[in-house]
Amino acid sequence: MIAYIKGNVTSIDEDSIAVETQGVGYEILCPSPFNFQQDLHKEVKIHTYHYVREDQQLLFGFKKKEDKLLFSKLLNVSGIGPKGALAILGSVSVPEFVSAIEQEDDKYLTKFPGVGKKTARQMILDLKGKLIVWLPDEQNEQTIFYQEEGSDKQKRERIDEALEALKALGYSDKELKMVQPELAKANHGNVDDYIRQGLQLLMKV
Question: Rounded to the nearest 10 degrees, what angle do helices 94-102 and 65-74 cross at?
């Protein structure tokens, strides 16, 4: 099993990237290859899943370890193959998916390509209560565990992502600092929710 590959991103295609390490180029299938655009011709560490069947061997890669872990669990669900698992990972964050499973949100799960009500129920049956996700903490290199969508850490991460998006729209750091406390008081939501709330607050500044 290849746990990860560290090397230079040499090319990006619609469904894969090429990573060269020690003179060997690896073709790695990814849920969102163009997320590596900023890493082109730079060294990256990609968490990989080596998919082996009698008729094929494929290498799947992910920026985050929890994405790889969710991918491996999805492959164990009846009716979900590599293509379906990649489609899910390419359009949702792990916390959002875990929340949908724990809340048995069939409507949310059936929005993914190829996932009908039967497959959604199978995912809930197979995965509910089993999705404990671990993430390396970049600051202290310890391992943290979370499972609830409304955790403080997840909320901070989503607010930070929303603030970065607002900054890209042209708002200054001073303006963003003024609305950040209000966003922290807001009810839990996804990144888009925080962006909308931030825009409403900025209009009043």
Answer: 40
Give dist(CA 137, CA 139) in Å, integer: 6
pLDDT, tens digit, 9 for 90 and up, residues 88-101: 998 888 888 888 88
pLDDT at residue 151 is higher than 60:
no
| Rounded percentage of the chain residues whose pLDDT exceeds 70 | 87
What is the model's pLDDT at position 1?
A: 73
Q: How far apart are CA 62 and CA 74, in angstroms?
A: 14
Q: How far apart are CA 84 and CA 112, in angstroms?
A: 8
Residue 107 to residues 100, 104, 140, 151: CA-CA distances in angstroms? 9, 9, 38, 23
Contact predicate 186/194, CB 8 Å: yes
**Of 46, 158, 13, 32, residue with least CA distance to 95:** 158
Contact 75, 85 (CB under 8 A): yes
Side chain identity at 61, as an amino acid letter?
G
